[in-house]
From TrEMBL:
Keywords: Signal. The keyword Kinase does not apply. Transmembrane segments: none annotated. This is Phytocyanin domain-containing protein. InterPro entries: Cupredoxin. The keyword Signal applies. It comes from Ditylum brightwellii. Residues 1-23 form the signal peptide.
């Protein structure tokens, strides 16, 4: 039984490590009428638009306020707080534009384009954390993803055994 549990744990570890290796990010946008600058993203990243009042989120293939072939991510929020989310895929590599189609919101600046890079083109090194000095005087350097993975595995191990 312990052998089977160990195999399950190894499978979960491999899955967790793969997700950390990908390095997908969540980009949160406070969605209201203003001018937005283009933002970088990569395949696997997700964007979450948070908004109140009368707004919505549409994908605009034209890259402009032209609503031809636009696709809704969410309906109008009315007066309640609302969100709309999207995860970038390989077909999105290049420019991906989102806009609000309520009244003249898009024309007033509520339009945002992401410059989406392929997941394979991510050459950014993982952010490093400095660990405290060890007793031998050497420093340990661990990535945030690895630290999270170790904590997750510890919690899983605790529940399995």
């Amino acid at each position: 039984m312990k052998y089977f549990a160990s195999l399950q744990l190894l499978g979960m570890l491999a899955s967790l490590f793969a997700s950390y290796a990908e390095g997908a990010d969540e980009i949160v946008i406070d969605w209201f009428i203003k001018s937005y600058k283009d933002l970088p993203a990569k395949v696997g990243d997700s964007v979450r638009f948070e908004f109140t009042n009368n707004h919505n989120v549409y994908i605009h293939p034209s890259g402009t306020c032209d609503e031809t072939d636009s696709v809704a991510l969410d309906i109008m929020s009315g007066s309640a707080f609302n969100t709309a989310s999207y995860t970038f895929v390989e077909d999105d590599v290049g420019a991906k534009t989102f806009a609000c189609q309520v009244s003249s919101h898009c024309g007033s600046g509520q339009i945002l384009t992401f410059d989406v890079a392929s997941a394979d083109n991510n050459t950014e090194a993982p952010e490093e954390l400095e660990a405290p000095e060890t007793s031998s005087g050497e420093f340990l350097s661990l990535s945030k993803g690895l630290v999270s993975l170790i904590v997750s595995v510890s919690l899983i191990s605790f529940h399995l055994f």
